[in-house]
Design goal:
The protein has three helices and no strands. The chain is mainly α.
């Protein structure tokens, strides 16, 4: 399968998965994304304040408990 066909198939599947969510599910997803964004913003402010990265990571993990998967609240980037 070429890349364009693969991309279009993946895109169609993702839209069909979204369509299966109820309005309540969608509202819950929106709330979770907003909470994760707030936690990440707090982590950025923590780092900008000069605190050690380990401390900011711990605060992020606490703020994100139950919201996202993984140690970095659903988001990890390269350094």
């Amino acid at each position: 399968m070429n890349r364009i066909a693969f991309f279009l198939t993946a895109l169609a599947l993702s839209f069909s998965a979204v369509a299966q969510h109820s309005a309540k599910d969608l509202e819950q997803d929106i709330a979770r994304h907003r909470a994760m964004a707030e936690a990440h913003e707090a982590a950025a402010k923590c780092l900008a304040s000069g605190k050690k990265p380990d401390q900011c990571t711990k605060e992020l993990q606490t703020a994100c408990k139950g919201l996202a998967l993984g140690k970095y609240c659903g988001m990890k980037h390269v350094h």
